[in-house]
Amino acid sequence: MRVGNVKSKVSRIAVAVSVAAALGLTAACGGGGGDGGKGAKPSKAKGSEAAQADPKASPAGSGALTRAELEKAALASGDVKGYGVKKTAASDIGLDSVPADPAACQPVADMFLFTSDPAARAAVGRSFAAKDDLDASVTSLALLAYGSGEAEQVLDGLRTSTGKCTKYEHTGYQYSGVKVLKDPGLGDESVAYRLLGSIEGASVPTTFTVVRVGTTVVTFTAMNMLDGDKVKVPSAIVDAQLKKLKKLKKATA
Asked: Which superkingdom does the taxonomy of this entry point to (predicted)?
């Protein structure tokens, strides 16, 4: 497993959030502006690299959207007022799952990297920077396509894990304060939770909203080192993404 690659990408998350926080603090103190950071994140588990290499690939009868379809469904510039949108690099999609300690926290640890077991058949990601200089948040999402019955397994695994896991170690970093949040009642089913990561000396409060729409799972994450107690996924991003995904699924049904 490419633990080093995964760890370096996790470290970049902390750097991105630190930059966003610094920019937000500077703006709040009247020292000038700047965009919030870019929260591109690593993703996806073992077995998915072939699907990422071929955007049209999807096993016959799997029910999974292809990567090309996920790209059509993903948010683009202009889709969400007040936010800049950036595609997650292809190199950040398809990383191996790395064992977490304790094992009960594995689904939570995997989803921090947009990874899962079972592995998604295809995945795309987006990162968002608020155009408001006072907003130091970093928001990301991933659309993960699964075969029949697999998306349900992912949500079940997260639901069980967040109920048992309180803290864990993953790729040499410490995570604590794992807490289940109120189910937002989105899509066919959803879960929400938060945690605090300790990465490269930085405390990174992170909130997750994970939604299943048919065989597709959409994972939204938000980080904000200036206002960790109130960090949350912007509803404008969630609503716009789910609306666009449902529109594509209806068109391809």
From this structure: Bacteria
Q: Which of 44, 43, 38 is nearest to 13 (CA)?
A: 38
Structural domain boundaries enclosing 103: 3-252
Kindly list the strands in the beta sheet with 168-170, ordered across the sheet, starting from the edge strand earlier in the chain.
Answer: 83-87, 122-130, 138-145, 216-223, 202-213, 189-199, 173-180, 168-170, 100-101
Tokens of 40: 């591109």
What CATH code is carried by the domain that includes residue 117? 3.40.1000.70
Length of the chain (residues): 253
Residue 182 CB: number of other CB atoms within 10 A? 6
Count of domains for the chain: 1
- What SS3 state is found at 126? strand
Indicate the DSSP class of residue 223.
E
Is the model more confident about 191 or about 202?
Answer: 191
CA-only gyration radius of the chain, Å: 17
Structure tokens at 64: 């999974």
Tokens of 5: 């690659």
